[in-house]
Each structure stands twice: as C-alpha cells, then as structure tokens.
C-alpha cells in the first residue's frame, strides 16, 4: 500500500493517511484495534503537550504538538465515519456554524464593544444551545467530568454563579477559606482519614472559588506554582551537587536555607 500523494492538500493527505491506517486490508493493527474510549486518553495527553510547549515557549515544538492534537481529531472523525455517525467535514461544519452563531457581533448585527460584555453574551448563547440540546437543561449539565479537577471546580462555580448562587465578593470567600482551614484542623485531630480527605477537598474547592472571584485561572496558577517549586528545588540540588552532595545528604534546615536563597535570587532578578 503506497502512501497518499504529497500533492494532495495537507489536510486531505492527513485524512487519507488516517483512512489507510484504519483500512482492514493492510492497515495498522494497532490503529484498527482502537475505539473512541481507547483513544480519548491520548487526546487529553496531546492537549496537555500543546499547553506544555506553550508554557515553555517552545514554539518549534508547538507546531509538532498541534499536529499531534489535530491527528486526534482526524482519528475520532475517521472512526465516526466508519460507524456511520459523522465525518471530518461534519466536524468542520459544526464548528464553523457554532463560531458564527456565537459571534453575532462579528458575523451579525449585534453591537458588542468590549470583551467582558462579549463573554456574558457568549455564555447566554451557550445556555440557549444547551436548553435546546439533548444534554439536559439543568444548570450543571454538560460540565465535562474528565476535566482536571481544579478546572472543573471553577467551571461548576462559574455555572452556578450565573443563576445567583455565589458569594457577593472575595472577602466572603476568604472568610470561608478560614472556616475550611479550621475544619481541616478538626478533621486532623479526629484522626479519621476519610474525613481529612473530605475537608481538604472542601478547602481546595473554596480556594478555587477564591481564584474565580479574583479572576485568576487556578489551573494556570497551580501550574505556575508547580514550575516555581521545580525551579527552586533544582536550585537546591545544584547547590548541593557543587558540594558533592545530594538532597538526601542534607538536613531540612539546610535545604530550607537554600530554598530561601533561591527565592531571594529570583526576586532580585525580577524586573522592578
């Protein structure tokens, strides 16, 4: 079986490649074994790899990662075509129609002059779409379960806030954070592991709500905190390595002193 011609338009060649990979007559055994459920984890993984390349400003890698993510869309569309559900052209038509429908200020006669108003209108259009779909019309319907927990928490809170179930300001949320910390302390004192986990979960949920009230994307903020932790811990490793030592050879006090040193160096190097 020969490869699809490079003279084809790039997207047509990719579709042809995927079709051949899934061809029972000479296709790839691994690709033929897959279904929507088995491919879904790879789709999620590829989306994260796109985000990682962006975070690292690895723009050369970003091209490849976007290609990998596009392949996931093509793979799902090919399986859907084989099942008689829809094909790649239907996927494109659906997103074309959705983008036009959700941007009446660009493709219609709506007069929206700022991004905040546009966001409100976008959510109203989405709500109307949900009401007319098979997904259900309850407030929290269709918030994907597979989202990262922090991202899903923020989406759940945002959805509930649209119908008035929300704290009036960030100060009230901070009070709730204090309350949840007290409940974590009580749970720890009880020694009940399940209760401790529950209360820590409640604390994380409220902290996520605080981020939402302050217009902070908690998923991004946590990713930044992870990167900062990695950066400072590697500083500790490097400083100890210069002494011929490893972290396990150092005391906690020594490592904390190096952590503070790394923190001060970062602050000194930061733009004023």
From TrEMBL:
Protein name per UniProt: Nucleoside triphosphate pyrophosphohydrolase
Domain of life: Bacteria
Every NTP pyrophosphohydrolase MazG-like domain range: 34-107, 176-232
Listed GO MF terms: ATP diphosphatase activity
Pfam families referenced in this protein's UniProt entry, alphabetically: MazG
EC annotation from Swiss-Prot or TrEMBL: 3.6.1.8
Catalytic activity, as annotated: ATP + H2O = AMP + diphosphate + H(+)
UniProt record similarity statement: Belongs to the nucleoside triphosphate pyrophosphohydrolase family.
Lineage: Bacteria, Pseudomonadati, Pseudomonadota, Alphaproteobacteria, Maricaulales
GO annotation (BP), single: dATP catabolic process
Organism this protein belongs to: Maricaulis virginensis
Uppermost EC category: hydrolase
């Amino acid at each position: 079986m020969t490869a699809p011609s490079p003279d084809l338009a790039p997207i047509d060649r990719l579709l042809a490649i995927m079709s051949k990979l899934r061809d029972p007559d000479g296709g790839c055994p691994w690709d033929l074994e897959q279904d929507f459920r088995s491919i879904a984890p790879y789709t999620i993984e590829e989306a994260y790899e796109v985000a990682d390349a962006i975070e690292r400003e690895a723009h050369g890698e970003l091209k490849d990662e976007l290609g990998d993510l596009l392949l996931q869309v093509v793979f799902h569309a090919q399986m859907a075509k084989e099942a008689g559900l829809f094909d790649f052209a239907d996927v494109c038509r659906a997103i074309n129609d959705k983008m036009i429908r959700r941007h009446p200020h660009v493709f219609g006669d709506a007069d929206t002059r700022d991004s905040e108003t546009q966001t409100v209108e976008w959510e109203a259009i989405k709500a109307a779409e949900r009401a007319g779909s098979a997904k259900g019309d309850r407030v929290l319907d269709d918030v994907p379960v597979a989202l990262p927990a922090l991202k899903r928490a923020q989406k759940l809170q945002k959805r509930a806030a649209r119908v008035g179930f929300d704290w009036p300001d960030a100060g009230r949320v901070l009070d709730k954070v204090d309350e949840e910390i007290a409940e974590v302390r009580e749970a720890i004192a009880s020694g009940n592991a399940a209760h401790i986990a529950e209360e820590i979960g409640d604390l994380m949920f409220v902290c996520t709500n605080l981020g939402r009230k302050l217009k902070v994307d908690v998923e991004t903020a946590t990713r930044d905190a992870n990167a900062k932790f990695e950066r400072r811990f590697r500083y500790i490793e490097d400083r100890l390595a210069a002494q011929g030592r490893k972290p396990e050879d150092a005391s906690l006090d020594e490592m904390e002193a190096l952590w503070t040193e790394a923190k001060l160096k970062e602050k000194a190097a930061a733009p004023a």
